Amino acid sequence: MAxxxxxxxxxxxxxxxxxxRAGVVMILLRSVAAxxxxxxxxVTPDEENxxxxxxVIRLRDGxxxxxxxxxxxx
Length: 74
Description:
The chain is an alpha+beta fold. The protein has one helix spanning 19-36; strands spanning 7-11, 39-43, 57-60, 63-66.
C-alpha cells in the first residue's frame, strides 16, 4: 500500500476469519479501492462474499463464468 499500487491482489483474505471479521476485511478492501481508485482482485472460495463485488468471475469445471450468481450452489 505504501507504493500506491494500481491493483491489490488478495488471495483468500478471509479464510481464517469468523464472519464478522471477514465482513470488516471486505469493507476495508472496498473502501481502499474506492478511495485510491484502484482495482482489488480477490480470489476466494467463500461464495458468501460474492455479493460484495462489482464483478464476479467464477471458474467452474475448467471454464470461466462471468457475473456468476452470488448464491451458493448456483
